[in-house]
Amino acid sequence: MRVTQGTFSFLPELTDAQIAAQVQYCIDNGWAVNIEFTDDPHPRNTFWEMWELPLFDAKDAAGVMLELDACRKAYGDRYIRISAFDASHGWESVRLSFIVNRPDEEPGFLLERQEIAGRAMRYTLRHRSATI
Amino acid sequence: MDGATAEPVADQGPPPVAVDLQAEFEATGVAGILREFDQDLIGLGPVKRRVRETATLLLVERARRRMGLAHETPTLHMSFTGNPGTGKTTVALRMAELLHRLGYVRRGHLVAVTRDDLVGQYIGHTAPKTKEVLKRAMGGVLFIDEAYYLYRPENERDYGQEAIEILLQVMENRRDDLVVILAGYGPRMDRFFESNPGFRSRIAHHIDFPDYGDDELLAIAERMLERQNYHLDPGAREALARYVGLRRTQPHFANARSIRNALDRARLRQANRLFETASGPLGATELSTISAEDILASRVFAQGAEGARSAIGDQP
User: Fold this and answer.
1) Which fold has domain B214-309?
2) Which of A18, A57, A60 sits opposite B139 (nearest CB)?
3) Do the chains contact at B136 and A57, CB–CB below 8 Å?
4) Quick check: B112 contacting A, CB < 8 Å?
5) For B122, which DSSP code?
6) Exposed, middle or buried by CB within 10 Å (0-12, 13-18, 19+), for A5?
7) Domain boundaries, chain B
């Protein structure tokens, strides 16, 4: 099941040229670009693991693409997203975030039922690739 | 990823049938930069000629590319050799601007680094450091000052070698994204290239920076003072001319940089002189005039004869 979260997620996969163009747009706006990866793309999981530090002083998308290639080489079997942070308010806030890499097969979510008092049911969603 | 990030020349519709190089020369702003370059920098005749030649080559290459006659990015990595203070960094800045106007680098910023920025202090520290710098320089020009320090043959476990390998790889694979300029003093750079043949073969343009002549240094001094709204009175000009001649014979002479330092010290002396001798209000003329005594107080005149003798031995 295709995970749809972040910007562009209902579009076909972005090509590298399109990703670079988006990254350049972020850099031109003065946003810091960050690469993150995870095996648990649950929509409530906001804390993805960081790939190195955000690229605060990159002037050109090529530098980010270099890091993205390195991240894909190491974690090509996971979800990777690019986020852009705007610090103009005095704190970093996400302006743009989109998935740039997904596993070849996306196993989708698992619905877990839990029976509680009075035979009531509780439901929880868990991504099948999550290791926890 | 080359599609969208390629330079703007690539996607300008059908290839033109004819190209007017002169018009192109003006339209890209290259003419303007070269004109500025000629006016702003004193001396450096051979360098200006080489830069102009390089710019022309790139302009023609660009036209050929638009007509579909050439496809590969030419090798643009350069080496600047010359004594200290001969304007290598200044020219590198102009070069970055020039390459940007011609569309060979996308951003045209210059990242100036030395060995310390590239080489780490312990195992595993060098690669991330070098990559960090490369990432910063992507889309612009990476200027490595005193590049020969990267290679230290006397220590076989030196981490500089690691930085060199990463640099070489990027210089080869990322020619579209980055131009590297290596700079340093002539003879040591020659030795550096001899022991690192990989660099020699990847660098297309070698530009040699000559030393400035005495009158050129004097002209530079006047230009520097003019920019700070100072001027020399006739006596000071004569003293400075003598200073330049003497300073050259002394050790650690660094061309324009020595002159800049001398002027800074002269301004210091002028300020002290004004403070100590002034009895009433001072006008703009007094505040911006450097007189002979400000320059003649330099230790260069005191050591003149002695320095000329010892300079032969300890010139680096």
Assistant:
1) Helicase, Ruva Protein; domain 3 (1.10.8)
2) A60
3) yes
4) no
5) S
6) middle
7) 2-209, 214-309
